[in-house]
Amino acid sequence: MKLNRQLFEPIVFTGLFLLSGFLFNAYDPLLTNSIFSYSVLFLAIITLFYGFIPGLLVLATFSVVAAFGYKQIPYLFLFENCLFTLVFGEFHLYWTRTLKKSTEEKKYYGIKLKELSKAFYSLKISHDQLEKNYILKPISIRSLLEQTKSIYLDNKRDAFNELLKLFARFFGIENAVYYKKIGDAYMKTAWLGNDLELDQNDTLVSTAIEEGVSTYINIKTTEKDYKGKYLAVIPAISGSDEIEGLLLINKMSFMSFNKNNLEMIGVIMSYYSNQTAAIEACAPVKEQCPFLSEDLIAEMIRLSHLRVKYGLESMIAFICVPHSYLRKSISSIIEQAIRGSEIHQKIEMDDRDILIIIMPLAGSSTINGFVNRISDIIKKKCNKEETAELMHARIIEIESLDKTIEILKSNVNSVVSSVHQN
Fold it and tell me: Which helix (H) or strand (E) holds 90?
């Protein structure tokens, strides 16, 4: 559809341009003898807006008209227009590429912002839950999230059924069904208690699907207003704000049916969907590098895609902290210097620590500044003139996923081999 528009519209506009030129001067429809070069202006509009190929199409049309509509072919006119088309096409290519880079960069930061927002929101809910229920029900959202991950790793096939049992245990859910979204349809994959059919015309369901938020019966939604069969409908939202599935709750303990518990269930479901997707995507890399965490691998997959497709740079700081009495202090200093948008992992060995820090959408100058800043802090806090004996840093540029993984493996293996030699 887009290709047809890119070709159809320039042809129509070219026809109108030639018709206008014919009306002004039937012997010179391309207006080659006019003081102002209208053809160059027209080529600029078409090529800059639609691209180089439509510009060439217009130029070819001009050449045909020049060949059959003029007694003497205006070669200089055509050559001049050809040069301008090449210049305009190059600028369009550069502008489109820059725009795509900026769009992808903005999209990446948007995803990271949503991830951080969900993390902070989870922390808020967990804190509120601890304040209210610590005496009667000593759980935190952190412990529940850890349990959801272990549930999936232990039994992938019946993972969501086990998750529903977890909800029944901690949130008093007695009857619920989970429908997983496959394409545009929803398939029942897990249930607790009696069967429950999905009615997409139901007010709670339609609102949850359209707005991507949890919906439930509250004081404002009385029995007269709502004739459906659900207490609550909670969507599982992916990291890209797509609905992965719907949890339909039909029966729940009266004391547990409150906004905080429903919000916590929504957070856990979204975390579960994102975590399971990340585990599946990271499985091939995890087999090669079992020492890397799923979060780190997922970030590397995302950034290597941006690097290969759009040329957006990202860097990795591979820092080794050898054994010394300051080892724990130095590792702590490095971890405190890491910003919230940066993913990192700490690998503890017998006589040293390895810290792998991913700096998204950052160049070599940024990561060198980060390493130098850490070195200055260590010098100041440890009263050392040099940090060579306290910290070894290597900088790795993220390129293709396979190449980046290979470099990381070789760096870790070199550290391990040096440990065995010592």
Answer: helix 75-133
Burial profile 317-338: b = 16 or more Cβ within 10 angstroms, e = fewer: bbbbbbeeebbeebbebbeeeb
Which of the four pLDDT bands, split at 50, 70 and 90, describes residue 389? low
Yes or no: is domain 289-421 CATH 3.30.70.2880? yes
Name the segment(s) of the chain with CATH classification 3.30.450.40.
Answer: 139-281
Q: How far apart are CA 366 and CA 384, in angstroms?
A: 24
Alpha-carbon distances, residue 259 vs 143, 228, 232, 300 (angstroms): 20, 19, 10, 36
Looking at the chain, the domain(s) classified CATH 3.30.70.2880 span 289-421
Average pLDDT over residues 37-58: 88
Across the range 311-333, mean pLDDT stands at 81
Residue 211 CB neighbour total at 10 angstroms: 10
Q: Domain 139-281 - what CATH class?
A: alpha beta
3-state helix, strand, coil split of the chain in percent (to 5) is 60, 15, 25
Residue 190 β-bridge partners: 178
Classify 233 in phi/psi space as left (phi over 0), alpha (psi -120 to 50) or beta: beta
d(CA 336, CA 259): 35
Asked if 353 contacts 321 with a C-beta cutoff of 8 angstroms, the reply is: yes
pLDDT score of 308 more than 70 = yes
> What does the mean pLDDT of the chain come to?
79
Q: Under DSSP, is residue 349 helix (H, G, I), strand (E, B) or coil?
A: coil
In this prediction, what percent of the chain has a pLDDT beyond 90? 1
Terminal-residue alpha carbon distance, the chain:
65
pLDDT at position 192 is 85
Q: Give the strand pairing for 185-192 and 173-182.
A: antiparallel
Report the pLDDT value the prediction gives residue 419, as an integer from 0 to 100: 47
- Could you count the other beta carbons within 10 Å of the beta carbon of residue 48? 15
- Provide the token pair at 10: 């320039």
Pinpoint the alpha helices (H) of 25-74: 38-50, 52-69
User: pTM (2 decimals)?
Assistant: 0.62
> What pairs with residue 344 in β-bridges?
357
- What number is the average pLDDT over the span 300-324? 84
Query: What average pLDDT score do residues 191-216 get?
Result: 84
Coil, strand or helix at 388: coil
